[in-house]
Design goal:
The protein is mainly β and about 150 residues long. It has helices at about 1-10, 50-55, and strands at about 15, 25-30, 40-45, 65-70, 75-80, 80-85, 85-90, 110, 115-120, 135, 140-145. About 30% of the residues are buried.
Length: about 150
């Protein structure tokens, strides 16, 4: 019985190691299928793009970012600053560390089943950029709970 319970637990949870400086945690407990809330960390597979491939490889590891915008929230942008329901959540750089132009991410009402994700890190690669955009549905692996 204990082995069956452990197997069920392993199906819904995983330990993730964060190698990116964009989050201040190095160990995150992933809970698959959990419903993200504002401020939660979600782990997701990033969408494919040439920019992402150049910086992270053709098969990048999952990303972890904070949920700043929930379905139905209004995302706006002014002078490369992004706001969710009028609250500043991130500022977008014009170019990557390698000098590539960084196109701005989506604005408008966050679609159902999608999230606008950010980090407080100045070099965070998240929804403020078109190469990431909304994080929706099957891309979402689950909610991350920082443990270290």
């Amino acid at each position: 019985m204990a082995l069956a319970a452990l197997a069920r637990f392993a199906d819904t949870h995983a330990l993730m190691i964060n190698a990116s400086p964009s989050l201040p945690y190095w160990a995150i407990w992933l809970e698959r299928g959990a419903r993200p809330k504002r401020g939660d960390i979600i782990l997701f597979t990033p969408p494919p793009s040439p920019l992402l491939e150049a910086h992270f490889s053709a098969r990048p590891r999952p990303f972890g970012k904070e949920v700043s915008g929930m379905p139905g929230d209004l995302v706006t942008e002014k002078d490369r600053r992004f706001f969710v329901n009028g609250r500043l959540v991130a500022t977008a750089k014009r170019a990557s560390r390698r000098g590539e132009a960084l196109a701005l991410g989506p604005t408008g009402v966050v679609p159902q089943g999608c999230y606008f994700v950010t980090t407080g890190h100045k070099d965070g690669f998240d929804s403020r950029y078109a190469a990431i955009g909304w994080i929706c549905g099957k891309r979402i692996l689950g909610v991350g709970r920082p443990i270290l």
